Amino acid sequence: MAxxxxxxxxxxxxxxxxxxxxxxxxxxxxxIKAVLLFVILLLNTLLVIWFERRVIGRMQQRPxxxxxxxxxxxxxxxxxxxxxxxxxxxxxxxxxxxxxxAPIIAGAMAFVAFAIIPLSGSVWMFGHHTPLQLTDTxxxxxxxxxVAGVGVYGIVLAGWSSGSTYPLLGGLRSSAQVIxxxxxxxxxxxxxxxxxGSMSTSQIVLAQKGIWYCIPAFFSFIVYIITMVGExxxxxxxxxxxxxxxxxxxxxxxxxxxxxxxxLGEYVNMFTVSALATTLFLGGWQAPPGxxxxxxxxxxxxxxxxxxxxxxxxxxxxxxxxxRGSLPRVRYDQFxxxxxxxxxxxxxxxxxxxxxxxxxxxxxxxxxxxxxxxxRATLIVIAVIAVIVLAIAWVWDTKQARxxxxxxxxxxxxxxxxGGHPVPPxxxxxxxxxxxxxxxAPAARSSVDNHSEEPRG
Length: 457
Known about the structure:
Layout: H1 2-12, H2 27-59, H3 75-85, H4 96-112, E1 122-125, E2 128-131, H5 140-161, H6 165-196, H7 201-206, H8 218-231, H9 243-246, H10 256-281, H11 289-292, H12 304-326, H13 332-362, H14 376-404, E3 413-414, E4 430-431, H15 437-453
Parallel strand pairs: 3-4
Antiparallel strand pairs: 1-2
Helix pairs in contact: 1-6, 1-13, 2-10, 2-12, 3-10, 4-5, 4-10, 5-6, 6-8, 6-13, 8-10, 8-13, 10-12, 13-14
């Protein structure tokens, strides 16, 4: 931990990547940007629902929505109007205050988290130079994690306040899932903080001018991709809404606009985690390296940044849709095991390795020594050993998981009445010839009758 702290301190002293400058941004311009951000997220949500239906339709060899409007583009709008006009039912046993507050919390928190995402660099807007970002703080990324944690309250309250068993189970399952994967997600982001020397999103984007962090922090990128799918309750990790187990999960009892708020919050959350991945690992609004070098960077920044940002963002949205159309839902215990026993421990080892690597790269105490007087070569060896331990632990855990999931072969012979209830045999099994209880009872009765009749004879 001392290595990580020293690395962060040394990188924080780097002033080559200043934070976004909001000094020329009056309050009314911030208000306009907030409204535009809200509208952009709403329009993108309408578009991504249509996009998801069309893409999965093509994957399943069917057309998808193609009746309402050109190419079916108005289908999502029609569904939204239908939800608004449906009857709003509140269960008799529900806690009405919490029942109403839960969807508001879940929906509002999804929008708040997007406020620190830089859509581009500074642009000229209404007579002022302002960043295309609503706000930024020195710990902006932690703000996203904090807001996501508050959003869990909406899920828990929705399940508890419904006054029904299945929503309560769905709320508990979903909250456990989100909290578990937030831990791994937060650990995955530590490597980015070590490389950038800041938690400010604008500074992290500018720090990736040379190389995007998806390359040096590749393992963190992979872990983040897995955790962002688990965080948003999307297939194959939509376990809180397992229809065969929990009917509809925590929002089973919701209808009309309250259900629409949960639906909207889920899709806005998809955009939030995708935008965060774009910002932290794919250079944010910066153009790809080849294009960024054209014309002295004329296509890199300004209003051009919006184009590159949304291209990267929609690549992640396609990834979400592709997963939903390709993979089946996993088992809940397997999913939780992946988070607690694989992702969290291995990410901890990875963070330690990155801390030693960054300490060796920075060379705090001169050319030959790095951190605490330890030679750079020693730090690199320690980092390599940590990565090897990571690989061995991963392989061992995978083998252990396969061993635990091995299915023993069914016996060749089976007694259908062994458990007290008739059970049909599996293919390839032979029935034992037991004395069924139903057949044994008349035989025993007749035997008693015969013995009782002998004295009378």
